[in-house]
Amino acid sequence: MTREEAKELLPIIQAWADGKSIQFQTDSGSWSDITKDLYPCNHPSLYRIKPEPKYRPFKDQEECWNEMHKHLDFGWVKSHNTGHLCQINCFYYGNIGIDCDDPISFRCAFDDYLFPDGTPFGIKK
Fold first, then answer.
1. DSSP state letters, 109-120
2. Are 9 and 47 in contact (CB under 8 A)?
3. 80, 44 contact by CB (below 8 A)
4. Are 50 and 21 spatial neighbours (Cβ–Cβ below 8 Å)?
5. Are 103 and 95 in contact (CB under 8 A)?
């Protein structure tokens, strides 16, 4: 391994040490998760940090309602800041009411809350 290859591989090894998922590129060109130990014996370009799924705010009440049904603690969200559970109590003209506060936009709810299982309070792209 050259020094340049080591520099390319260093972020991958650091991410692995930090507990992130690493993938390698197969012969077919697809990416596969490394599930056991990392043995970087190929060119560094054949490894990558697994991309995090991307989410967006809900576009409307129906989309929010449908997604909420996929989570066990139906009708609850968790605050990013405090970790406290809060109950969703109303939908109001494209906004959402959480714990009897004034309704906030789906964008603000996306920024401030998670589903109790830790998933972002939004739709996976």
1. HHHHEE-TTS-B
2. yes
3. no
4. yes
5. yes
To which residue do tokens 């995090």 refer?
Answer: 52
Give pLDDT tens digits for 25-42: 988 989 999 888 877 777
Residue of 54, 48, 38, 108 lying closest to 77 (CA atoms): 108
How many Cβ atoms sit within 10 Å of the Cβ of residue 44? 19
Integer Rg of the chain from CA: 20
CA distance 27 to 20: 23
pTM score, two decimals? 0.61
What are the structure tokens assigned to 32, written together? 């596969």
Q: Given the structure tokens 């993938």, which residue do they identify?
A: 23
Supply 66's token pair.
Answer: 């449908």
Task: Specify whether the backbone of 21 is left (phi greater than 0), alpha (psi in -120 to 50) or beta.
Answer: beta
